[in-house]
Specification:
With 395 residues, this protein is α+β, with helices and mostly antiparallel strands. Helix content is 34%, strand content 15%. It is elongated, with a radius of gyration of 27 Å.
Length: 395
């Protein structure tokens, strides 16, 4: 629209957007999002005029075709390379000017970051809460390889399993600090939905209390920050990289049906973890997924890249909830009152999960030990439990 109707400024034009009841001048981020929405050809399906057919790897293409069990895998042995690429729709243009599409370079080039600097996954594992000590790992190469290598690294160096044997219960309780299914979905979604026109890499930060997956920019309209906080499924959505989604779907790394957030929530709940957090600013500049650590996982996190699976906590290694129970039970408390303090239901399963381990370790005792199921039974912190509380507080 014109900036002014005056003769002097009538030729000057600006973009304007509607924010609720107001019409305001579009800032840089608004303009970027508007251009993304109006672009007739998505970025991943555009011709890359800076690359040539030789930048596509026949080996990577054949490996992909075999992995997805495509009929084209056998035919590709005798077909001309350009014909194979055209069949897969990763090149375009007339025969005298055949050029790779961006999707071809992202999936079938050994170093796509030379064309798209943001096509990288960076993993940082922080040691301790100060944030001054950390280790970094950088994953490059085709997008599918980045996802698999990053997930393999996290699975072998970060994910840990706890096995708790409970009193009077035949089966042991097993849970992870972070469920792999949630992590896999979050990483694949970040690769699927980020903009490869931006130079920002995908950042995965492993902190003592949570794991974060950060990508740029945020979701396309009509998805808002408020919709991300809601638990109901997202129905109306736009996809930034449909071709990337198609290839990842063939590799069973994503579904492409807007089910990712629901899958992450379900995986966290099945593991007994706190619910995930999905954040995006109002301008849609970033998308952040936060996976909180399981509340009953012992602290601290491992200080170096070592796999501990499964592991057994030391005698004095208690979770935040277990320490809270010991503090609460310095005065005798009923089972129902203890679980209410933890904001949990008064079920026998929760009793077995949170109270029985403390009884077995000798940090908690019955006030009527000769009749464990007495109607007036209470739980009380033992002297060894009080001593442990003093050690934890530095007394």
């Amino acid at each position: 629209a014109p900036v002014s109707l005056s003769k002097e400024r009538r030729g000057q034009r600006e973009y304007y957007v509607r924010h609720f009841a107001s019409t305001t001048k579009a800032n840089v981020d608004d303009q970027r999002r508007l251009l993304e929405l109006t672009a007739k050809v998505p970025f991943d399906d555009r011709i890359n005029h800076h690359a040539s057919l030789g930048d596509l790897s026949l080996g990577l293409i054949r490996d992909h075709l075999h992995e997805i069990k495509s009929k084209l895998a056998d035919e590709a042995v005798t077909m001309p390379f350009e014909a194979v690429c055209r069949q897969m729709r990763i090149v375009s243009g007339p025969p005298e000017y055949c050029k790779p599409l961006n999707i071809g370079l992202l999936m079938f080039n050994e170093q796509p970051e030379q064309f798209f600097p943001g096509a990288v996954i960076e993993v940082t594992v922080f040691r301790g809460s100060s944030g001054r000590s950390f280790a970094e790992q950088r994953f490059t190469g085709p997008l599918s390889r980045q996802i698999k290598q990053a997930l393999r690294f996290l699975r072998t160096t970060v994910l840990r399993e706890e096995v708790h044997k409970l009193a009077d219960v035949a089966e042991a309780q097993r849970f992870f600090n972070y469920p792999y299914a949630a992590l896999e979905e979050a990483v694949a979604n970040a690769v699927y939905h980020k903009s490869y026109e931006l130079r920002n890499p995908i950042e995965i930060n492993v902190r003592p209390q949570q794991l974060e997956i950060l990508s740029f920019p945020g979701a396309l309209p009509p998805i808002t920050a408020a919709q991300l906080r809601a638990t109901r499924p997202i129905v109306a959505r736009n996809y930034r990289n449909r071709r990337i989604g198609d290839f990842l779907k063939e590799l069973h790394l994503t579904e492409g049906k807007a089910t990712g957030l629901g899958t992450i929530r379900t995986a966290m709940a099945s593991n007994g973890s706190p619910p995930p957090v999905f954040e995006m600013d109002e301008a849609g500049n970033y998308f952040l997924v936060i996976l909180p650590i399981h509340a009953d996982f012992p602290e601290p996190q491992p200080s170096k890249f070592t796999r501990i699976l499964p592991s057994s906590p030391a005698k004095t290694s208690l979770t935040v909830r277990q320490l809270a129970i010991l503090r609460f039970c310095q005065q005798p408390r009923s089972r129902k009152a203890i679980l209410a303090e933890l904001q949990l239901s008064a079920s026998l399963a929760n009793s077995a999960r949170y109270l029985s381990p403390l009884l077995v370790k000798g940090y908690l005792t019955f006030t009527i030990p000769e009749t464990p199921k007495h109607i007036h039974q209470r739980y009380s912190t033992t002297p060894s439990g009080r001593q442990l509380l003093g050690e934890q507080s530095g007394e």
